Amino acid sequence: MFKNIRWQIVLLVIIISFAIGILFNLMSGRMDFIRIEKVYETLSADSLNQFVTKDEQTIAENAKVKLIDIELAFKLYESNEALFIDARDENEFEFFHIKGAVSIPEYSFEGQDDILNKLDKSKLYVVYCDGADCGTSIRLAEKLINYKFDRLLVFEGGIDEWESAGYPIEFGDNQ
Amino acid sequence: MKNILTNYKLHLVLRYLIGLVFVFSGIEKIISPEHFAVSIINYKMFPTEIVNIIAITLPWLELIVGILLIFGLYVRENALIVNAMLLLFTIMVLVALLRGLDIDCGCFGTLDHQKVGIQKITENLLLLISGIILMRYYSQKLYKIENLQ
To answer: In A66-135, which ranges are continuous DSSP H helix?
Structure first.
């Protein structure tokens, strides 16, 4: 099966393709070549109170993505302390989402969205996506921090965990 | 059977099929490298440090191999590269399934939200069989003038 294969051609195609990929990325500057894994702090119920206070020093410390688990997310939801932001795309949001959440799709977010002007940046927000594996919520939260959203939390379990727990969801675009 | 496997019309169809799948898949990933990188991370098979370099280079290999197959250039060699990639992808999907990961396969960038599963493995295996036929039986000599008339 391999006897008529010209291995130098195989090698050449691989090297040229990789070289084009690397050059294209260098010119477009879209991505770091080495990915650095970020470790995010998970807030406990006790540290949440500290997070919610608004003195200058706490705000500076808050300017990092912080994670919360489902119990804390539901507590904030039940007490109406936080507004939930859905980072998935519009179709997924329309299919179903956490009741009362607003949609800010991460993939198309460029900071010019009308919704940003409607949101009070001093309030508490919880960003979510599908679940711990999706990463979209963390990326959106990091972008929103650049737009002066100081009190942002990421509910890592996302809509999957929320739905499994039987917590309120709704269907359609109700924004 | 051998007559079918060495049929130049079959080779033409297989070249276009695999070529278009890989061109489409490559372009989608080139447009959205971060999305592809996240898909690779979700498989939990590679160290985070090398994920970006895979996301930067692999889509171009898919694109170029696909184009070369469509144009009938170095078909056996490109079929070999395609088969190696398909084998790797199939193993990754299989391992993800065995580990109980419920993740998007990430096969066609942002346009594809197909979860890893038996359907994906079947699709990959069908493409792999097509690639093996091209690698084993493709020959430029089959494209004689009398065959093409």
So the answer is: 70-78, 90-95, 114-118
